[in-house]
Design a protein that fits this description.
heterodimer, A: mainly beta, four-stranded antiparallel sheet, B: mainly beta, 1 helix, 47% strand
């Protein structure tokens, strides 16, 4: 049977390691994605519905449950050595990952990104 | 009314690994487990490769693969190698990127402004994905 529990704080049974539910909610990644090396597909994800290949090194990811605003933090790393990946544009329903090689040229590579912030 | 729940473990009722929480806006919901970082570490590679203070979670050890090249070993393994991980290097004009991962570890390289592998005093790595 499904159930709903409403509490403000969680503690372990000994009464230690207190954490507020607000910390759990605020501290959880609201979306993350691991995308393929050719930049065209999602390997695994959470709260992501689709990926649009906007060209070499450019990917727009669509968020399933939107963010509350555009002030969220975007974390990104490319798994290819010496490639950098950043989240360069934030909308409540999408974000864009941009990947460059060591020469600064846009390139396709495995990208990993996550969003920290408030859900709508 | 404020309330405190004292427990050592939490499981979903319908599915043990699926607990729903409501987001900050009070309407959207998300799966608690998927949003939690499964491992993180703050570590140095300067004079030796080591965790900075108590700065890690679900990390059993670090392996020094050479200059600017570190393997982060998990205590509890991931379910598959499709997880995402992110690295940040606190040195100015430097960067970090991944290079390979398995269910039990991920590899982080750090480099300087000349795009050469380089050790640094603070690297942050975080992992999202499914635990085994």
């Amino acid at each position: 049977m499904a159930s709903e529990l409403r509490v403000n704080t969680l503690k372990d049974a000994a009464g230690a390691n207190s954490v507020a539910l607000s910390t759990v909610a605020n501290g959880s990644a609201k979306a993350w994605a691991n995308c393929s090396a050719d930049g065209t597909s999602i390997t695994d994800s959470f709260n992501i519905t689709s990926l649009a290949d906007d060209g070499t090194g450019l990917q727009t990811l669509t968020i399933a449950s939107d963010m509350a605003n555009t002030n969220y933090a975007g974390l990104a790393t490319s798994i290819n050595s010496f490639c950098t990946c950043i989240v360069d544009s934030h909308a409540t329903g999408t974000y864009r990952a941009v990947t460059r090689n060591q020469s600064g040229t846009l390139t396709d590579a495995i990208t990993q990104s996550a969003l920290m912030g408030d859900l709508a | 009314m404020a309330s405190i729940l004292k427990v050592d473990a939490m499981q979903g009722v319908t599915s043990a690994g699926d607990i729903t929480i409501t987001g900050e806006g009070g309407s959207a919901t998300m799966q608690l487990q998927q949003g939690l970082a499964k491992a993180w570490a703050n570590y140095t590679t300067n004079t030796s490769t080591a965790i900075n203070g108590s700065g890690s979670f679900n990390v059993s050890s670090l392996t020094d693969n050479g200059t600017g090249d570190t393997v982060v070993v998990f205590t509890s393994a991931m379910a598959n190698d499709d997880f995402s991980y992110y690295g940040m290097n606190n040195s100015a004009s430097a960067g970090a990127s991944g290079s390979q991962k398995t269910t039990s570890q991920c590899r982080q390289v750090t480099y300087n402004s000349s795009i050469a592998l380089a050790d640094t005093n603070e690297i942050s790595t975080s992992v999202d994905g499914d635990l085994a």
